[in-house]
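=== RUN LOG ===
request id: a7f3
mode: sequence -> structure
chains: 1
length: 82
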Amino acid sequence: MKLRICKTSSRSFSQHIVFDMLLYFMTTVHKDVTERLLRINPSLAAQARKILDINKSERHIRGGLATKDKYMHERVMREMAH
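=== RESULT ===
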């Protein structure tokens, strides 16, 4: 696993390690579910593919809701400050 350390970043060394590990494991799990599982158990792989496709089709909605919540929170905090 390659570690990326930016001296100008505000993240600490340990945060960089955790972030890199998270990216590594997310990629590995996705590869396991999408490629390796197909060879091991094609029936289960088909079920997993359906779930991944549903998740992908709904992802933009979750992102929009998260953005809406973020700005609503910022608005409430500004109003409380006044």
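=== NOTES ===
The first helix runs from residue 13 to 40.
The chain has two helices and no strands.
=== END ===
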